[in-house]
Amino acid sequence: MTATTAPPAEKTAAPAPAKKSKKKLLIIAVVLLLGLGGAGYFFVLKPGSGGDAAPKPGPVAPLDHVQINLAQGHYLRLGLSLQLTDAVSGEHGGEFDGSKALDAAIEIFSGRDVAELAKDGQRAKLKKELVKVLEERYEGEVMDVYFTEFVTE
């Protein structure tokens, strides 16, 4: 008795196209999900995409210089200009009260050593601290500080 059976290659040939089409569908689904996720991030979650846009620079308000007492009988002659935001330009009618800024500068620099102020990077560190304080005191009206005079004696 002889029995004929189909070769094993024919049995495996039929299911192969189904596996390929499932893989293609899976790949297409993954690509679509990634695309939708990226679009969702771009339109909804992207930092800075909301209403919290960074303020734009407005006018610069120069302030009178001030002398600040340092340690050991020394002093600092400090001149400041404040970079205001564009929202400030019309609010104050051309006059900007810098008394809060001068007060903050006196608080931050008073009693420091001349040697401390001369260290590399210390002036930038103190300026950054001053900007942070002024952003709080002026409620976002001040965005930067420029030293126009910085003389120790």
UniProtKB/TrEMBL annotation:
Entries under InterPro entries matching the protein: FliL
Any Pfam family matching the protein: FliL
Keyword Isomerase: no
Membrane topology: Single-pass membrane protein
Protein family according to the UniProt entry: Belongs to the FliL family.
Function: Controls the rotational direction of flagella during chemotaxis.
Protein's name in the database: Flagellar protein FliL
Species, as recorded: Nocardioides humilatus
Source organism phylogeny: Bacteria, Bacillati, Actinomycetota, Actinomycetes, Propionibacteriales
